[in-house]
Amino acid sequence: MNLEKSKKLFEEAKAVMPGGVNSPVRAFSSVKMDPLFLKKGEGTYIYDEDGNKYIDYVGSWGPLILGHCHPEVMKNLKEVVELGTSFGAPTEIETRMAQLIVEAIPSIEMIRMVNSGTEATMTALRLARGYTGRSKIVKFNGNYHGHSDSLLIKAGSGLLTHGVPNSPGVPEDVVKNTITARYNDIENIEEIFKTYGKDIAAVIVEPVAGNMGVVPMTQSFADRLRSITEEYSSVLIFDEVMTGFRVAFKGAQSLYNITPDLTCYSKIIGGGLPVGAFGGKKEIMSMMSPIGPVYQAGTLSGNPLAMMAGYTTLKILRDNPEIYEELDRKAEMLEKGLKKHVETLGIKASFNRVGAMLCMFFTDQEVENFEAAVTSDTEKYAVYFKEMLKRGVYLAPSQFEATFINAAMRYEDIEKTLEAAYHALEEVKR
Ligand code: PLP
């Protein structure tokens, strides 16, 4: 595989950008190779600067559920760009977008647009604190909600932990109100509420975690999270940045039949442009500035390009529900095929899948939480990743990420992927 141009571009990039990238995972460090520089996307395929073609299972980390350059998204985007890129003033498309989401998702009565998932979760937590007048928040180990200070935290030692910052630059003082909890552990969350319940403003959770591989909540855990937050009048925040409009049109909350108080979105609702949003109960959302006291603002929030790309994507998904059935069928085909391969080759692996999000962990443990996810053999994943890449399949460059199916993918693409996977797994076995 010729990667000379990518290599050269990476050398140039490293001279002027830390690690040569604008987001760390792009540097391919955990698979121990230089990153590809990508040039073009077309449906389910991507092309790098050296002209190599790959089937894309990353989809820009989730947004591209329709694949690259969907004709209708591109057409509408081109039309709107001709009218101007940003006004910093209200535009009709913002209301149409909000209406679409409010009509689609029963838990969302009002919504505000921001520019990233990080902004969405950061502001949702501020809102929950403003609404409850409390300070503490609960976050689960292995869940990722972006890089705002109070969420850059890892579990401390002990069962009831105020976690410790997992990045220099985050003062202890900032995370002292963040409690870390074990995902899918009902006893642990009950213990936390027994001790701190009256001070807990919010619990934030990825209903299907997608940042430690793919790890869904159990139904009983989801039900208990809803009931315990109600008992203590804490705000339940679903971080559906990844799962929203992905695992089902109405998101993970529809699969679990849970009505969160607030929900965070990003990724798919921007159709590949920078966006984020948080929304929920009118009573809570009415606390937001300018009608309420909780402050938030954004120069580019709700900008017409992101709104148009996102609105068009959501409209296509809403009007074509069969897309989700197809995504599920294709994802199931991939999962079943991979399971068969690892069985045939005698490789220890375990699988989690929710709709078009799946993960093969190189471990023999069932993965229900972070502690199990990290038993995966990342060296094996690195071999698997490289061997797949050589065979024209672009997976996430880390074991602890989701594999995404997109609607432009055909059954032949899955067959090709499975053929590549058999040979890649043979190399893993070696
Ligand atoms: N929340 C979840 C569940 C995510 O997966 C991510 C990013 O991958 C974020 C929040 C942060 O979003 P962003 O990268 O847009 O800031």
TrEMBL record:
EC number of the protein: 5.4.3.8
InterPro entries: 4pyrrol_synth_GluAld_NH2Trfase (IPR004639), Aminotrans_3 (IPR005814), Aminotrans_3_PPA_site (IPR049704), PyrdxlP-dep_Trfase (IPR015424), PyrdxlP-dep_Trfase_major (IPR015421), PyrdxlP-dep_Trfase_small (IPR015422)
Modified residues (N6-(pyridoxal phosphate)lysine): 267
Keywords, alphabetical: Cytoplasm, Isomerase, Porphyrin biosynthesis, Pyridoxal phosphate
Co-factor requirement: pyridoxal 5'-phosphate
Keyword Ribosomal protein: no
Catalytic activity, reaction form: (S)-4-amino-5-oxopentanoate = 5-aminolevulinate
Name of the protein this chain belongs to: Glutamate-1-semialdehyde 2,1-aminomutase
